Structures are given as C-alpha cells and as structure tokens.
Amino acid sequence: MFQNLRQGSQIYLLHKGMTPYLEMGTVETIPTYPMMGYYPQMPMMPMDITVRVGEAVTQYKQLPPSAEVANVIAQNSGEEVCIACSREFVNNELQLQMQKSVDAINSVPMHEKRIETLKQIHDQLNPEKVKEAQQAEELNSLRDKVTDLGNLVKELRAELKARDESSH
Known about the structure:
The protein is α+β, with helices and mostly antiparallel strands. Helix content is about 45%, strand content about 25%.
C-alpha cells in the first residue's frame, strides 16, 4: 500500500499513452504527518510522493494511502500513468490494458455494421440528400464521359490530319 512506502522503496510506473512503457523508480520523498492521535473513523488523506527514475524526479499527487495501485496524470507530460507498489499490480494493469485493446479490435466489425445501419437510417430520414448525392455522382460520370469523348475527338482529328498530310 502507498501508506507503507518508505524513502528508497521501489515503485513501478506504467505510462499508458499511445506507446506504453514501463519505468521503475524509487521513492524520493513521502509525506510526513505529525501524530495527532489515532481516529479510526477518519478517512486517510490522499498523499503526494516524489519518485526518482534515473536523474528525473517527478511528483505524483493524490494517491490513496490504502491502495496498491493508482492511475494519475503525470505532472511533466500530462499523460495517464499507472503507479504501483508491486510488480503484481503492474502485471494486472498490463493485462487490463491488453484486454481493452483486444476488445477494441474485436469490436471493429460491429462498429462497421453499425455505421452502415446508421447511414441507411440517415438516408431514409434525408431522401433529398440521397437524391443530391446520386445527381452529383451522375454528373461526375457524365463529365468523365464527355472528357473521354473530347479526347477521342482529338485523337481522331490527329489521325485524320496525319492521313491527310501523308496523302499529299
């Protein structure tokens, strides 16, 4: 639990951005509270700790003292970080993150079908837009055909001109 951490305790930091990565650091500073008597009915106050990873020192705020793991926003990068007291809890978070990604991938066909159905409903609700889109498609098709005919006419003229010149 975070409340049991001491200066020098190992801590695990799983950065959960688009390219996740793991850092292991040590607790640099922990809060010290003056003993004012023990009141079991009072909730424990969230705690702030400072963690050193290599030369970098980062503060993590509002950690729940009775938890083993917490998701926080890193002060320096603004990204979500899972901070854990043990490897076991980092492994649990890794499994959770992998499962979320697998679920997202597996949901793609459902979302594709949903988009198709929503487009059908949109078209049913807005027939004038469907008609405009069909007219635009037909117009583009006609433009392409006219362009092709224009190119064919140019080719025929060039061929006739070449025949004319070779017969003289």
